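Reopening this ticket.

The earlier resolution said the output was attached, but the attachment link was broken on my side. Pasting everything inline this time so it's all in one place.
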Amino acid sequence: MNRTVLTMLAHPDDAEILCAGTLIRLAEAGWDVHIATSVMGDCGSATLPNDQIAEIRRKEGVAAAELIDATYHCLGEKDVHLVFDRESNRKAIDLFRQIAPSLVITHPRLDYMLDHEQTHLLARSAAFAYPIPNSTDMPLNEGSAVPYLYYCDPLDGVDHAGEQIKPTTLIDITGEMDRKTEMLACHVSQREWLRSHHGMDEYIEAMKRHSAMRGQHAGTTYAEAFVQHRGHAFPRNDLLAELFNGHVNE
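Inline output:
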């Protein structure tokens, strides 16, 4: 099995908020880590034009990834206009074909915003399709196979209707919290944006509170939560739990 993990999330900083602690643990275990976003973050400012804030956020994503020797990618779609269609699906499949991940982390099917939900569809489609020889004209890398697929917590641990999510897997990230915080702090532009649009001036503290809440569930100080996709053709053993002695909810 290729020891390559790809996070396919919507925006720059989503990985740092939702799963960076687990990515750090994977990197330390020798995995090749790739952090991808479907959109550019071009609506992530109340004052800057689209192209300018998109470039700032790209650089922030690259800087955060480099802290753990990861590679940042972006499909180049526009914020709040992302749709699962032929072109975006092709981009996602091509990216997966290029990287050949054996482990994929993405958003849940139901989340608070549609960019996340559409990204879920793209990642789920590409995870299934990329090992199919005729799914794209790009060459098929050796070892390509349907990967392990996990869904991150939605923000606040609730779906679009406010219903609590029950994780299948909880990964202790207590020892990784300082580095996770450092990665999130690379996204400097989002402090002003979240204060303007969300009424938040504490995005790092909000991340820590959520990680602490999941830590209580796992019996640790901090944890990250996932739901594993176990549908037909996807691996069903809990790889993350096996790698990191993760707490599993049955």
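Reporter confirms the inline version is readable. The chain has one domain: 4-232. Residues 4-232 form a domain with the Rossmann fold fold (CATH 3.40.50.10320).
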